Structures are given as structure tokens and as C-alpha cells.
User: What shape does this take?
Amino acid sequence: MDTHTMHDTATTEVLARLESYYDAVPRFSATTEEHGPFTLFLRTGNGWHYYGRPALGGDGPFTVADVDRVRARQRELGAPEAFEWVHETTPGLRAVIEAAGLAVHEHPLLVLELDGASAPAAAADGDGPEVRVLAPGDPLLPSAVAVPHLAFAEPGTQLGTAGVEQLADAARTAAADGAVARMEGRITAGRTVLAATVGPEGLATASGCHQPVDGVSEIVAVATLPSLRRQGLARRVTAHLVEHARATGVRTVFLSASDDAVARIYQQVGFRRAATALIAEPPAAD
Assistant: This one.
């Protein structure tokens, strides 16, 4: 078997593991409905909304009518009209989704296998602020939960305006609206591992999570306080999460980057691009 074939086989095996993961994780905090070739995940309680995905193990065929039925059900329930899938796993779906009138957004899907001896480049770097995994009750939790909201309001990798003052306000809001309590519940249940850098005034200036299930874990919500970007904080958090995953028996870590520029940051920590994650939603109004 030549090197190219081995690489293709390895990627196919990884993507199959990711499909099982994508199907399993929402079920911890969502109910499901089957609509033809789609599984619709519906949130329970006050958590985040979910989406429709190709049913695990199914390969269609998909039609515009199938998409329309899922969207109608989402509207009926007050859920976003959203779909998520991996292009290389379900390559025929994009054309159908677009024919149904939805806009499709591409995100690099990056994978890091932890079976070997290689380690992320930043893992052994002792310079910079402390990074630690947070337990329920940790005083960093409110700001660690709040950082992504400020960061995603100012997307990209350039310096932004939100600073420590805005972070302190956002942390108080996260504590008051139940977001911190929900995160503590996920940590206690073992569904989420949250790590953060320790910054000034006892606040988390960067944070991120990984969510382990059956030897696979997705790194999500890695974010830096916008005014403190370009200091390697997100890289430190990511490396810490990877090492925690490795130490706790995770075999495969993966993530979806917002764009190619962000993907390059993760590639510096050892990730390789394996596929393209697609997210579909109604187009923005003019």
C-alpha cells in the first residue's frame, strides 16, 4: 500500500470516528427526531440550540423536500434553521442544501492523533501565563465562560477593543444568567473540560474546552480576550487541552477552525487538515 493510499485510509477511518462522535455528543443534552435521511437534534432546557445532521450510517439520498421538512419542523419549534455536516463524508448534500435556499459556510476540520509520541509544540513552553483546568467553584470560571462571548463578537485574529473591564462585566452576567452553573454541570458530568489562562485581576484572559466521548474529543470555544490577542494565549490553552486529553486516554482530538488563518494557528500545534466542516443557515438579509 503506497503512502497516499495509507493516508486516505487513515483519514476515512478518522472521519468515521468523528461521525459517531457528532451523533453522540448532542444526545447528552438534546432530544432527537428522525426526518428521512436527517437526524434533528433539539435542545432540552436552556442550553444552546442544535441542528440537523445526516443520520449516522445513512448516505441519503437527500432531496430539497427532505431539507424543507426539517426546516419546517425547526420553525415550528422555534429552533434555528441550521444544518451541519462534513463535506468529505456526505459530499452530495451541499448541492441539495443550496438548492433549498440555505447559505453554506466552510470551516477547516483539523485532526490530531494522540496515539504516537509527538506532542504539540507549545506543550513544553514554560513562558507565559499559567494555564489550568478549572473545577466547579473555581473563581476563574465566570470569566472563562464569558471570554468566548466577547471574542466571537469581535471575530478574527487581530487586536480588538474588549478588555478587562468588559470581561469583568461579562463574567458577572455569565454568573447571573446561569451560564456558569450550566458549565459546572457539564464539568461535573465529565462532558466538558474547561481550561483557561490566569490573567490580571484574577480573570481568565483566554479559555477553551474539550469534550471527550469514547476516545474522541472536540476542542471548542477557544477564545482570547480581544485586547490581548497575538500573544499566543489561545495556542497555550489549546496545547494544555491536548495534553489533558492525551493524559486521560483520548485517542483523537479534532476541531473546526473559523477560517484558514485560524487553522494555521492550530497547525502550528500539530493538527493537520483532514476535511471541511459545513454549516448551513438561511442567508443574511440584505
The radius of gyration is 19 Å. The chain is about 35% helix and 25% strand. The mean pLDDT is 91. Residues 107 and 151 are 18 Å apart (CA to CA).
